[in-house]
Amino acid sequence: MTHHFPGGLPTPRPVIEPDAEPWWDAAGRGELTVPYCEACGRPFWYPRGFCPRCGSTGVVWRPATGEGTVYSYTVVRRAAEPWGSHTPFVLAYVTLDEGVTVQTNIVDCSSDVLEPGLRVRAVFERADDADLPVLRFTPVDPVH
Amino acid sequence: MSLNGSAVIVGAYEHPGRRLPGHTLAGVHRDVVAGALADAGLSITDVDGFFTDSSAPGFGVIDLVQHLGMQCTYTESSEMGGASYVAYVGHAAAAIAAGKCRVAVISLAGLPAQRQRVSPPDTPPPAAAYQVNGYSGGYGPVADYAVLARRHMHEFGTTSEQLAWVKVASSRHAALNPHAFLRDEVTVDDVLGSSLIADPLHKLDCCVVTDGGGALVVVHPDVARELGRSGATLRGQGESHKASLAGDVDLTYSANRRSGELAFAEAGITAEQVRYASLYDSFTITVLVALEDLGFCSRGTAGSFVQDGGLVSGTGRLAVNTDGGGLSSNHPGNRGGMTKVIEAVRQLRGEAHPALQVPDLEFAVASGTGFRLSTNHYSSTIVLERFA
Ligand SMILES: [Zn+2]
């Protein structure tokens, strides 16, 4: 019954909002950043050039620890292409140690350890150099 | 301005079809509008307000308005997914209260089983890049609701068996509905034995995909009194949006919490006074979350509330979706809000199936949620009172 969920999931080519380019630049270097609002001092997600809580455009992009905890997940067993040929794969929400919760995938992971509370770390995947680096997570403990 | 008592639903009609090859969206709209107007005792020339969603064939809503032969002074085609047809009842009442129209028709038509695709988004949502790969589609809505179910299980001990009971109750109701798409009663074991689509949701945790539609006639109370037809008075309406909340994600509640508070406050009643509820049932988990959000049970207890037939009319704790709901009967155009309102009106008129009719029903609730409960969604809730 144990299943290993591999990496190499499809990577999309979305339109980047110009005000979020600092996030993508860091991601391209393999670095996870989290946007913080200078006015209210809190991190927010997803990245954009203004604070969705107070509207301030004073945004700073701080390096994140890159680690977090699985909040919830599902094993997707049926999907349309390009996802259909990758089933089963994991869709999850991960709460970063900075406090924001991110919709993502868990890759290079065994079904035996998959549960809310699992500690994970960020990895960036792209199918080829032209694709955007997509934020995904894998278990912190490599034996898993 | 309060909407309490501002309008009455005097006509309601559900298309009997579930697979409509050879039909067009305009044709289904015509059929259901004619059905609802006949039910109300009105004609197309009485209509001066028209409401439908963004899938209306043609340019916005006005091609359909001219096609059906209406002379409107008020129209709306805002898109709120499954919440749309619950919200439109409130929007029609607001337009009536403001004097913008007197006889509003709300119409839904959909042909998803005929692969007549409607209104694909031509621009990606701004969040798409960061919500990674799912937000704009790709793996479909089931996964988005599955993460809700998993979290509910983790926090509250909810089980797959309890989720299955939502489907079992709907199938028992649908067995008495000759128009239901799925008429066979199913058991908890049937649900758990159906294929997993996205853990923990099985195929039978998911609603049907059906063609069809329905329509409502919402009028000024003076018009309703002249008609002499029974119906449902709007007592309260609320709507609300909930999304990723800047990253403060909590999947254990939905926008129903706020829309329900607003609707009950406007109506001046509480959930304890409601013995019938039409609850959006895109998936079994959608119903569990709505029961808690609307106050029919306390937070985290919906699993035990629904188990052992808790939602079966007559013997359960609360009669829910006595037409069989979207899980077994009908989910036309992938927007279940219309059928939710129609069955609530049937119950208030005493026109539900005799075996499932709630006796002496005074108040009913209908609630709908649109788009993805785990990411970005909208809800609307209405409280209705019997109009005789
Ligand atoms: Zn701020």
Q: What is the number of beta strands of chain B?
A: 12
* Uncertain parts of chain B: 118-124, 128-137
What ligands are attached or bound here? Answer: zinc ion
**Strand composition percent of chain B:** 15-25%
In CATH, the topology of the largest domain in chain B is named Peroxisomal Thiolase, Chain A, domain 1
Strand order of the largest sheet of chain B: 3-2-4-7-1-8-12-11-9-10
Oligomer: heterodimer
* CATH architecture classification of the largest domain in chain A: Beta Barrel
Mean pLDDT of chain A: 91
- Outline of chain B, from the CA principal axes? globular
Mean pLDDT rating of chain B: 93
Structural class of chain A: mainly beta
The total number of structural domains of chain B is 2
Q: Any idea what the CATH architecture of the largest domain in chain B is? A: 3-Layer(aba) Sandwich
Distance between the termini of chain B: 25 Å
Biggest sheet: strand arrangement of chain A: 6-5-4-8-9
Q: What's the CATH class label of the largest domain in chain A?
A: Mainly Beta
The gross shape of chain A turns out to be: globular
Query: What is the C-level CATH assignment of the largest domain in chain B?
Result: Alpha Beta
- Biggest sheet character of chain A: 5 strands, antiparallel
Whole-number radius of gyration of chain A? Answer: 16 Å
Please give a structural write-up:
The complex is a heterodimer of chains A (144) and B (388). With 144 residues, chain A is mostly beta strands. In chain A, 6% of the residues lie in helices and 35% in strands. Chain A folds into two domains: 15-64, no CATH class; 66-144, OB fold (Dihydrolipoamide Acetyltransferase, E2P), CATH 2.40.50. Chain A contains one helix and nine strands; from the N terminus they run βαββββββββ. The radius of gyration of chain A is 16 Å and the shape is globular. In chain B, α5 (160-174) packs across α9 and α8 (256-267) packs across α9 (284-293). Chain B has two domains: 8-114 and 211-228, Peroxisomal Thiolase, Chain A, domain 1; 133-207 and 236-387, Peroxisomal Thiolase, Chain A, domain 1 (3-Layer(aba) Sandwich). At the A-B interface, β4, β5, β6 and β9 of A face α4 and β5 of B. Bound molecules: zinc ion. Zinc ion binds at residues 37, 39-40, 51, 53-54, 56 of chain A.
